[in-house]
Every structure is written in C-alpha cells, then in structure tokens.
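Late entry, written up from scratch paper. The run itself happened at the end of the previous shift, but nothing got recorded in the book at the time, so transcribing now.
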Amino acid sequence: MTTVFLTLLLVLGIATQSLAEWTEVHAQASGNPRLYADYHTIQGTSVWILMDYNTPAYSGSLSTKIQLEFDCPGDRRRITAYATFSGRMATGQSLYVEAPSLIALEPFTPVPEGSAVHEIMAHVCPTP
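Output as recorded:
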C-alpha cells in the first residue's frame, strides 16, 4: 500500500509540470540539451530539474524530469526519481517513470565544481 501511495505521489508530482517554474541553468553549445531547475520544488536537499532536448534522446524522449538529492557537505548528488516524456519541457506522453519506491537509490556521486549541477546545488544547499 505504501509503495502504491508513493508511486502515485511521484506521478502526480511529475504530472504537475504546467505549474513548474523552470529556470534555465545551462545550455550546451549545440543547444542540446538545455538544463532547467524548478527552485520552488526544493524540499530539504532535493530539487526537480529538467533536461530538454532539441532532438530525441536515445530513448526517443524529448525531455527528462529528474529529482536530485544533494549531500551538501560532501559536494555529491544522486538521482532519486525521474521520468521521460515524448514532448519538450515535460509535455506529451510519459514514456518511463522510475520512482524511489521501485528502485534502490543510486549512490551519491561527486558534483564537479563549476558544472551546471554545482550551480543548482548552490541554490539548494544552505551556506554555512
């Protein structure tokens, strides 16, 4: 029952994309992908980000919505949930959803200083 409830919450969170306030963080020189963050979704040390593609990714998706959790003192991050979409900016059909209740959490990995994710981490993690 708990798994069903958590999965439902994740899907509802992903489905409320129209309410998101995406802030562009980074665009590759080629323009593919563009990286956005919704800083209004910060909860503790987690935030939702969006990767938006000009051309379909290998999975056929045009966008991926990802929930990142940060280990602030360790300058590390991990993905706790994600979903891929057939349309840009998390629109269209949801192609794939991976929720924390369905998978073991991935290990934390270092966030390279100066990277776009490091910029996002600076918004999420409190300064000492």
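Helices lie at 2-15, 116-124.
(Scratch paper discarded after transcription.)
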